[in-house]
Amino acid sequence: MPSSNSDSPQSSMPSLSTFRTALQAFASSPSPFRILHTIPIPIPTSKSYPTPHILYVLDSSFNPPTLAHLHIATTAILQDPHAQSQAQKRLLLLLATQNADKAPKPASYEQRLMMMTAFAQDLLQRLEEGGTLEQEEKVIVDVGVTKKPYFLDKAAAIAQSGVYGVEGTREEVEQVHLIGFDTLIRLLDPKYYPPDYTLQPLDGLFKKHRLRVTYRLGEEYGGKEGQRGYLEALREGKRETEGGRREWAGGIELVEGRGEGEKIISSTRVREAAREEDRAMMEELVTRRVEEWTLKEGLYLEHDEMV
Fold first, then answer.
1. Residues 231/257, Cβ–Cβ less than 8 Å
2. How does pLDDT run across 126-150, given as a tens digit for each residue?
3. Which strands make up the sheet holding 174-180, listed edge to edge?
4. How are beta strands 140-146 and 33-39 bridged, if at all?
5. Nearest to 22 by CA among 178, 106, 143
């Protein structure tokens, strides 16, 4: 089997029909979470990889995956100050399909899964070429789907699946969710937790898992100072009346996304570049395999409302 750093963008790539069939089977099953592909694929003599020490979870619409996603994932893998040396790390690229009864636009779910696979291959190649990981630290990437729309339910579905160790035992894997500051605000909003509308349901999450939160630039969220202040308010006990606990702040790390003055990378800009077939712009926004697959398939050529 070709390795993940093969020059071909189609190396180890399932077909669209394979993902379509897998999605149909998942939709008709009671399972809330399922892995549809793993990169690299385990060798035939092994049914699966060993249980990792840390699972990084990148949950997005991946419409399409971008260099911003690459930065978030690689910096987490390489710069996590809480990870022990030579810890077995695994990355889960997670796509929510709770609106499966409504056709996703402008890229179908199976097309997004293809791009996620191409993205995973590029990510692994980037890590291998950078020589930044020891052999013992080899990273495995899973491409998975969930029917759960809410953050807390997604984390529970992953833990309860048994894929990454047994929930409630010493073998249960620590999840590190890679999110933006806007997602953190929604996560810590009591209105999402009926019937009592307090943050108490989050206690189990923070006892087991961590959040790595990317700053959002601009003044909408008060700049970096305002975002640090938001976390400090939690640390100082100012959310206790809402059920928030001081110690949760210890499991939340604020990290840089892009630097001041760097170009904005967004899925919207990628779709615009693909529509114009602007390869130079695409190269600044997405990885090579994602660019090649997107242009080859003629994605985003029409002005479609995103779903």
1. no
2. 998 876 666 556 789 999 999 999 9
3. 33-39, 140-146, 89-96, 54-59, 174-180, 210-214, 252-255
4. antiparallel
5. 143
